[in-house]
Write a structure and sequence with these properties.
The chain is an alpha/beta fold and 280 residues long. The protein has two domains: 145 residues, Rhodanese-like domain (Oxidized Rhodanese, domain 1, 3-Layer(aba) Sandwich), CATH 3.40.250; 129 residues, Oxidized Rhodanese, domain 1, CATH 3.40.250.10. Helices cover 28% and strands 16% of the residues. The chain is built from ten helices and 14 strands. Strands 1-5-4-2-3 form a five-stranded parallel sheet. It has a five-stranded parallel sheet with strand order 6-12-11-7-8. Strands 9-10 form a two-stranded antiparallel ribbon. Helix 4 crosses helix 9. It is globular.
Length: 280
C-alpha cells in the first residue's frame, strides 16, 4: 500500500468512523506558528500535534535536538486524543511533508501500519477547493498500546561501528551545502558523517508533491546494493521523509538515526567529514 494519499481520497474518507487526521504544521523559526495556523483553519476533524511538545522528548546533553518522546507517554497522549491501534491515521503539514513524515514514522515505529501522509499537505487540500474547519474535535478516549519496532532505529554507536562497512549505506537527508560543510545554520559543527552520501529530502518532491515511483526508484537505486540503509538529517525529522520515499519504492527496512547530526556532533571525538577533508 502506498504511504501517500491524495486530497481527493482523503476528502472521500471524511466521516469514516475509524479515521483520524493529524495536523503537524510547524515552523522551526516560530515555534507557535503551527498551533496558530491550525487554529485559523485545518482539515475537518484534524487533531494538532506539535513537533516540540508532542513529537519530541526533553533535550539532554546527547540525543539530538528532537529526541523521541517517552514511548508510553506518547502512547497515552494518542489515546487521550482518540487514536487507538485500530484507527487509520492520515498525517499532513503545510506541504512538503517534513513534519508529517516524523509522525508517520513514529506511528509506524509504535506498530500502527495503517498511517499515510497527505501528498502536498494542507496546500494541496486548499488548492483542491476543499473547506477548512475551525472546530477542535473531541474524540472519545481510546487506548493505544505501543509495540515498538526497535529494528527501525539505530544509535550513534551503530553508525560509528559501521562507518567503513560498505554494506551499510548511510544517507544524509540535509541540504547539500550543510552536508558539504559550507554552511551550518543550526548545529555547532559543519559537515557530515564520514562515508555518508547526500540525498536531500527536498529532491523527493516536485511542486510540493512526491515524485512518481519510477523517479524515486531511480533516485534511491544505490540502496539496492546495501544490506542495510540508515538515514539521518539534522535532528531526526527530515530523514523520515527519505524513509517514506524509500518505502514508496519497496525499500521497507531503512533505519533512522534518531539523534542524527545534532547528536553526532554533541560528542567531542566524533569524526566529521566535509567536501575537502575528513577530521578526527
Amino acid at each position: 500500500m502506498s504511504q501517500l494519499i491524495t486530497a481527493k481520497s482523503l476528502y472521500d474518507l471524511l466521516g469514516t468512523p475509524d479515521l483520524r487526521i493529524a495536523d503537524t504544521r510547524f515552523d522551526l523559526t516560530n515555534l507557535d506558528a503551527g498551533r496558530q495556523v491550525y487554529d485559523s483553519g485545518h482539515i475537518p476533524g484534524a487533531i494538532f500535534f506539535d513537533l516540540d511538545k508532542d513529537l519530541s522528548g526533553p533535550l539532554d546533553l546527547h540525543g539530538g535536538r528532537h529526541p523521541l518522546p517517552d514511548i508510553n507517554v506518547f502512547a497515552e497522549e494518542l489515546g487521550k486524543r482518540g487514536v487507538s491501534n485500530n484507527h487509520q491515521v492520515v498525517v499532513y503539514d503545510d506541504g512538503d511533508s517534513m513534519f508529517a513524515g516524523r509522525l508517520w514514522w513514529m506511528l509506524r515505529y509504535l506498530g500502527l501500519n495503517n498511517t499515510r501522509v497527505l501528498d502536498g499537505g494542507f496546500k494541496a487540500w486548499s488548492a483542491s477547493g476543499y473547506s477548512s474547519s475551525l472546530n477542535h474535535p473531541l474524540y472519545p478516549t481510546s487506548t493505544f498500546v505501543p509495540s515498538p519496532r526497535h529494528s527501525m532505529v539505530v544509535d550513534r554507536n551503530f553508525v560509528l561501528k559501521n562507518i567503513e562497512n560498505k554494506k551499510v549505506l548511510l544517507i544524509d537527508a540535509r541540504a547539500g551545502e550543510r552536508y558539504s560543510g559550507e554552511v551550518e545554520p543550526i548545529d555547532p559543527v559543519a559537515g557530515h558523517i564520514p562515508s555518508a552520501i547526500n540525498l536531500p529530502y527536498e529532491d523527493n518532491l516536485h511542486a510540493g508533491r512526491f515524485l512518481v515511483s519510477e523517479k524515486l526508484r531511480q533516485r534511491f537505486a544505490i540502496a539496492q546494493e546495501a544490506d542495510e540503509v540508515v538515514v539521518y538529517c539534522g535532528s531526526g525529522v527530515t530523514a523520515t521523509h527519505n524513509i517514506l520515499a524509500l518505502e514508496e519504492v519497496g525499500f521497507t527496512s531503512a533505519k533512522l538515526y534518531v539523534g542524527s547530526w545534532s547528536d553526532w556532533v554533541s560528542y567531542d571525538d566524533a569524526p566529521v567529514a566535509t567536501s575537502q577533508k575528513i577530521s578526527d
